Structure formats: C-alpha cells, structure tokens
C-alpha cells in the first residue's frame, strides 16, 4: 500500500515574547510517522502536546524549523497550491459555512473556490447530500440547524473537492451521542468507499475506538506511541478490575496492575470460598490514554 | 476570477437573508437625508459655496451615505477576531486570496445595498426637493460604476485596519481614525470645497478624497475629464492599498509561522 503521509523528523520552534524577553518554544521535536492510503489515524495528545502545530505544518499553514514531510507525494511548503486542491480539513469549532444562508450556497461557493466545473460540482454535491442524508436540511439557513446537522454540512463542505487526505480536528466536539455516532459512521463509510486517508485529532475516546485503526500519541512535541487501537487496549492497560460476588452475598472488588497475573490473584482471593459471580473488566480507553499521557516515552 | 464572482454572489444572497440590517440602514439614511435637507435649507448653501445648490448638496450627501451604509458592518472586527484567535491561519488553506475574499464579500454586500439605498434615498430627495434634479444627473450611471471602485478601495482600507490587529492588538483606534478620515477628508458630510484651499488639496491627495469626494461630487460637477481623473485616482490608490494589504498579510503569515498560530 502506498503512503499518503510521510513525516520525517519534523520539528517546529516558536519564538514567544514575554516580559523577560524572547523564549524558544520547541512545539514539535523530530516527529516521524507514515500513514497508508485509506486509513484513519487518531492523532492524540494532551493540550499543548504539539498536535495542532503538526497538523498546521502538514496542511502548509506553518513552515517547519526542521525535517521534511510529503503529503500525497507533494512537499506541503513548496507545492502548497497543488496540495490545497488535494487535501481537506474540518476544524471542529471553525465553520466554513455562511451562517445566514442555506448550506447549499456554501457548497456552491466552495466548489467554485476549488475550480470545480458547475456540472461536476452538482453531481458531487448531490451525491454527498444523499450520503450524508442532508436532503431535508440543505435549503434551511445554517443558523437554524442543530450542531450535529451543521457538522454533517461542514464535513460535506470539506469533501466537495474530493480530497484524498482529510484532516479532522475534533469533528465531534460538543455533539450529542446520536450525532456523534452518525458522524463516525459517515466518516467510516468515507474511508471504506472512497479510500480517503484521515488524520484526526480528538479528545473523545469514542471517536478513536469507532473510527480509527491506528493511534499516534504525541506529548511534549514527540511521538510517544504509534500503535493500533487494539494493541493499545491490550498492551497498555494500566490496571484491571476483578469483581467477585461470593455465595454468602459478600462482594469484593480488587484493582490489579497490568503486570500482575489475573489467574494468580483470583486463586489467592477465592481460596476455598464458593463464588456466585466473577468479572474481570478492562478500564475504559480513556483511563488507558490518561495513564499513557503521564509517561514521557512509551515506545 | 469565477470564484471571486461567486463570493460576491454569495455575499449578495447573504444580504437578502439579512433584511432587518438593511431596513435599519434605510431608516438611518432617511433620517439623515431629512435632517440635512432641513439644515441646508435653513443655512443656505449658496452662502458657503456658490457652486452647490441645496439639490446638488443633498444628492452629493446621498451618494456619500450610500457608500457608508452600503458596506458590510464590522468587517474590521471580524478580521481582527480572526487575527487574534489565529483562525486566519486556517483561511490560508484555501486556494483563494484572503484579501480578495474579504473585498469581494464587501462588493457583494454593496451590490444589494446600493440599488435599494439609492432608490429609496433618491425617491425621498425628489419628494423633499419637489422633483428637482442635480446638475449632472446624467452622470449617475458612471458614478454608480465608480462607486464600486470606491467601495473596493474602502474595503481594502478596512482589511488593512483589521490586519493591523497583528501589531495593535485592538484595531479600534485605527478604525476610528480611518472612519473620521473618510468623513472629513473623504467629504462624506460636506463637499471638500468647503475647506480652505490647502486642506482641500491635501484631502484630494488622500485615498479618502479619492474614494469619496472625487466620485460623489461628479453628480454636480461631472465632465469627462473629471470622471477620468476620478477613475485614475481610484486606480492609483487601489494599487497602493493592495500592495500595503498584501505586504501586511505576508508579514502576518511569517509571524504566524515564527510565533505560532
């Protein structure tokens, strides 16, 4: 499979002025990774980890201080114009839709901005409206849409020019459970049907579990973990919870660290007692991620 | 080019959906014209400038007001917000010029507002002046075309004010200065001929005089030469302002890259 995104030792240093003078802030330090065509990768990390800076560099907004990158075989900083036509972006809290106008007007405008011929734009928009189930919403002013409906329109707006790589920054922020589910489903379809590569930042572990095959974790400007979602859940469990209900009705809940044997612990706990129920539960993904954030280096 | 026309069309459609804002501006225009007409009749224009009759003056004022009320509200605040929040960085991802986008937005808004403001204003003036017309009413079509040039120049000025937030943090003081410049040096309240000679010449040499008086005064002093002068002057200042805006935007892009978004 070909690699849509190749990042090699990318770094970025900002010069921030404060009362004591100019300070150097190394926002991104030698970040390297590759992303295959048609995969959805979660790019996660705590606030200030360097996620947005990395994405801004990959989308040609920022010039790096060092290293290199190739998006769809293009250098983001030297071939910026060509790249703009081949990548898309949704930034959760920044709208590209005209607030007082129906979303259709914004779609037409975006198609023009990307120099798509009218006929072609109509075909693409109709297809996206159908896939994202926007038929009833498309002629309503954007201001009258719910947040979830608006986000569906935002995603459509970013797909009109058929980008091969899509950068999503918190696409489900502020949405209710149902709307989140729908957005995830639609994005999954986009990856499956169109082979779009997605690099997504999100603090919502649901997005990561339901959408992404791979996780890139960044902290203090460095990639600290690059693994599959399944492997992360298995390999980086901070603890497990054993809950036992005995025949006499008493209950015991024990939390064991990941390096302790579940088998041995249960044998020791039970002894000669009879048990009615026993469960071993993994912590939610959120806990796994939180525990990884605390470490400076995982891999 | 097609994309910029589409931006204008979208901005024009947006105005149709914001009818309340337009009605508020119409109301202000009516009050203003009414008050100025009364004021002019009382003091007598001929005492101040023998070239400008009350009818000429009120039409001159209408064209200035159309420029002022025809522009989108709060464009500088919107740009300032984008600069301060860093959102402007995300706008750079699109294959469209930021400055071109904002100016086309203004022109699109003006496309809708100009005919409505002009029609209502002209109807009111005709009523107030018993159907009298200004000396060079036949120049109105040319003036309307030039007003778009004026709006383009004013929009470039507003974009400059918004982008200046990069250095000033708050662009309001500069906006205040520019706005007063438009009124005083652009002659949007009084024709520049009211001023002493030195101030008149100075005002004419500024972009404000070029966008305002030079164009709007054609309604009573039109000659083909004056129209050509107004067009050249607009062209000159538009080129200068475009250069300044692009330079500022270039610096802004570099700053974003050096200091973060």
How would you portray this structure in words?
The complex is a heterodimer of chains A (299) and B (261). Chain A has helices at 51-58, 80-84, 103-113, 118-131, 147-159, 177-194, 205-211, 229-235, 262-270, 285-294; strands at 3-18, 21-36, 40-44, 66-71, 87-91, 165-169, 197-201, 214-219, 222-228, 239-246, 251-257, 275-281. Chain A is an alpha/beta fold. The longest helix of chain A is centred in the middle third of the chain and has 18 residues, at 177-194. The chains are: A alpha/beta (299), B mainly alpha (261). At the A-B interface, strand 1, helix 1, strand 5 and helix 3 of A face helix 1 and helix 14 of B.
Mean pLDDT of chain B: 88
Chain-averaged pLDDT of chain A: 85
Question: So, the CATH homologous superfamily of the largest domain in chain A?
Answer: P-loop containing nucleotide triphosphate hydrolases
Q: Biggest interface: chains and residue counts?
A: A-B, 33 and 23 residues
Characterize the biggest β-sheet of chain B: none
Supply Rg of chain A: 23 Å
The domain tally of chain A reads: 3
Q: What percentage of the residues of chain B does DSSP assign to strands (E)? A: under 5%
Question: What's a quick, concise take on this entry?
Answer:
The complex is a heterodimer of chains A (299) and B (261). Chain A is built from ten helices and twelve strands.
């Amino acid at each position: 499979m070909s690699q849509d995104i190749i990042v090699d030792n990318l770094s970025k240093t900002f010069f921030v002025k404060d009362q004591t003078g100019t300070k150097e802030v190394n926002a991104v330090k030698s970040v390297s990774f590759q992303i295959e065509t048609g995969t959805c990768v979660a790019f996660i990390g705590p606030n200030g980890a360097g996620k947005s800076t990395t994405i801004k560099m990959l989308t040609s907004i920022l010039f790096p201080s060092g290293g290199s990158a190739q998006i769809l075989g293009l250098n983001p900083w030297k071939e910026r114009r060509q790249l703009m036509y081949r990548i898309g972006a949704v930034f959760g809290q920044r709208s590209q839709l005209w607030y007082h106008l129906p979303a259709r007007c914004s779609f037409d405008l975006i198609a023009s901005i990307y120099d798509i011929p009218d006929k072609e734009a109509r075909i693409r928009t109709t297809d996206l409206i159908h896939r994202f189930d926007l038929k009833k919403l498309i002629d309503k002013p954007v201001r009258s849409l719910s947040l979830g409906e608006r986000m569906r329109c935002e995603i459509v707006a970013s797909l009109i020019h058929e980008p091969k790589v899509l950068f999503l920054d918190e696409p489900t922020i502020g949405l209710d459970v149902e709307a989140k589910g729908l957005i995830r489903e639609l994005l999954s379809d986009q990856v499956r049907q169109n082979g779009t590569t997605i690099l997504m930042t999100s603090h919502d572990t649901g997005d990561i579990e339901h959408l992404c095959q791979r996780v890139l974790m960044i902290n203090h400007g460095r990639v600290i973990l690059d693994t599959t979602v399944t492997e992360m859940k298995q390999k980086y469990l901070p603890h497990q919870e054993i809950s036992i209900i005995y025949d006499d009705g008493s209950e015991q809940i024990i939390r064991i660290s990941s390096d302790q044997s579940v088998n041995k612990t249960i044998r020791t706990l039970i002894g000669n007692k009879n048990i009615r129920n026993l469960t071993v539960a993994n912590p939610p993904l959120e806990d796994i991620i939180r525990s990884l954030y605390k470490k400076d280096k995982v891999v | 080019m097609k994309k910029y026309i589409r931006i204008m069309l979208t901005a024009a459609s947006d105005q149709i959906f914001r009818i309340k804002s337009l009605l508020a501006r119409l109301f202000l225009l009516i009050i203003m014209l009414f008050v100025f007409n009364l004021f002019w009749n009382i003091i007598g224009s001929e005492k101040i400038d023998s070239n400008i009759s009350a009818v000429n003056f009120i039409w001159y004022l209408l064209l200035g007001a159309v420029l002022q009320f025809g522009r989108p509200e709060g464009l500088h605040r919107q740009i300032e917000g984008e600069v301060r929040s860093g959102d402007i960085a995300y706008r750079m991802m699109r294959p469209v010029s930021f400055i071109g986008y904002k100016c086309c937005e203004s022109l699109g808004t003006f496309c809708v507002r100009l005919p409505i403001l002009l029609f209502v204003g002209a109807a009111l003036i005709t009523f107030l002046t018993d159907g009298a017309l200004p000396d060079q009413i036949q120049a109105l079509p040319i003036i309307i075309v030039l007003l778009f040039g004026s709006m383009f120049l004013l929009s470039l000025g507003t974009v400059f004010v918004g982008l200046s937030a990069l250095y000033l943090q708050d662009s309001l003081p500069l906006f205040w200065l520019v706005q007063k410049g438009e009124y005083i040096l652009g002659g949007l309240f009084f024709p520049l001929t009211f001023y002493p000679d030195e101030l008149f010449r100075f005002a004419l040499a500024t972009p404000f005089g070029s966008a305002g008086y030079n164009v709007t005064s054609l309604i009573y002093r039109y000659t083909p030469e004056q129209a050509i002068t107004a067009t050249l002057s607009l062209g000159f200042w538009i080129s200068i302002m475009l250069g300044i805006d692009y330079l500022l935007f270039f610096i802004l892009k570099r700053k974003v890259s050096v200091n973060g978004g």
